[in-house]
Amino acid sequence: MLSKPQHILILCSRLDTPGGIERTVVKTSNLLAQNGYRVTLLVADTEGLHSSYFSTTNQVQLEWLYAGFGITEKGNPFSRKFGLFRDIRRLGQRISLLQPDIIIASEYHLTIAMMLTAAKKKAACFAWEHLHYKNQRTNRFWSLLKKRYYPRLKGIICLNETEAGYYSQLNKTHVVPNFIEPTAVSADVLQAKNILTVGWLAEHKGIDLFPEIAGKILSEHPDWTWTLVGDGPLKSGILRFAAAKQLQERIILVGADEADLEKEYKQAALFVLLSRTEAFPMVLLEAMAYGVPAISFDCPSGPAHIINHKTDGILVANNDTKEMYLTINDLIISPDKRYRLSIAARENMHRFRPEAIMTKWNLAFSAVGKELSAP
Q: Which stretches does DSSP call E strand in the chain?
């Protein structure tokens, strides 16, 4: 065992928004630091904001790079390539100063930039994939770089077995799900009459399907409400729908920045995830940790790795709005089913407790062939 804690450098693009990736990066950085690793979180931060929406512990060193790696709509192909190689040089210089033992890049362009520095000669380099594999739409330039450099990594960290199957064609994979801390309180699912959805108000999150489903549910159950927490391009359309159907008091929109998520989970009788694609949605973990019965579309990846169908939650055929309506309706009129799902959901979340996921991180690090586990 080495005499000092291993130094882990985590690369990410930004931390100033309340997104799922940002939350996962910060929570995981804190977890690694609390378990004996020395952790530096290096944020590309192209806007120069130098801010984090989620709080890091004082054990995590937070640094800013101000680098976009050519991912911008500004300029032309030449200027973007110049920006990429300029930022790779700056990243390499910062890595040389920090001298990490392990580097984890949270997005494909950061992974490739990392591999184009000299970092791989001195540190164990990992990609950490947060998005569904088939949603990773890259142009030919980035696709070629990905095909060339991903096989040179020490490994690829995936959130579930399905994603690991996709990425296994590129390199060795390690399945490390997101974690959730246990909660002392649970939702009052027998008394509450509110449905909760949390996430970006966009088409890939299935929010375009919301009016069809919510219109039927709220029409048939006039004492129920539906809360949407989040912001996004479809927000104005939801507001117009609510006004047209005179549902302004029963479709409740809460901005991401102003939301008290603990309060929202505790006041929910049901949690509904309408996403078309996911990898490992944190909001689903959080809702179930509070004992909120969860209903989710059965995306190609993600929810099925969290929900045990009809035991601690319900999976609905992807994009099947009729089945989603029928499932929500069934749980509204069946409080006994809601209660059973609530109890089972809280029990299910034990397998995603921090110590269980920390073990998986340690296994991934130990697989590089040298002593990289924390003392």
A: 7-12, 38-43, 60-64, 102-105, 124-128, 155-158, 173-175, 194-198, 225-229, 251-254, 270-273, 294-297, 313-316
User: What average pLDDT does this structure show over 51-68?
Assistant: 93
| Amino acid identity, position 289 | A
Least-confidence region, from 75-89, 225-239, 245-259: 75-89
CA-to-CA dists, residue 145 to 26, 111, 158, 174, 226, angstroms: 28, 10, 19, 21, 44
pLDDT of residue 5: 65
- Strand order, beta sheet including 173-175: 60-64, 38-43, 7-12, 102-105, 124-128, 155-158, 173-175
pLDDT (tens digit, 9 = 90+) per residue, 236-283?
A: 999 999 999 999 999 999 999 899 999 999 999 999 999 999 999 999
CATH of domain 194-351: 3.40.50.2000
pLDDT at 237: 97
Helices 108-115 and 140-149 pack at an angle, to 10 degrees, of: 60
Q: How far apart are alpha carbons 278 and 263 in whole angstroms?
A: 24
What burial letters (b/e) apply to 125-135, b meaning 16+ CB within 10 Å?
bbbbbbbbbee
Tokens of 128: 């950490």
Query: Which is it for strands 155-158 and 60-64: parallel, antiparallel or unpaired?
Result: unpaired
Q: At what angle do helices 282-289 and 20-34 cross, to 10 degrees?
A: 70
φ, ψ at 95 (rounded to 5°): -60, -40
| Dihedral sign computed on CA atoms, order 311, 313, 319, 321 | positive
Give the Cα separation of 197 and 189 in Å (integer). 15
Q: Which CATH class is domain 7-179+353-366?
A: alpha beta
**What tokens does 10 get?**
């985590």
* 374 — pLDDT class (breaks 50, 70, 90): very low
Domain residue extents for the chain: 7-179+353-366, 194-351
> What amino acid occupies position 369?
G
Backbone angles phi, psi at 336, to 5 degrees: -65, -40
Please report the DSSP string for 222-274 in residue order.
TT-EEEEE--STTHHHHHHHHHHTT-TTTEEEE-GGG--HHHHHHT-SEEEE-
Q: Do domains 7-179+353-366 and 194-351 have the same CATH topology?
A: yes
Report which residue type is found at 323: E
Strand, helix or coil at 316?
strand
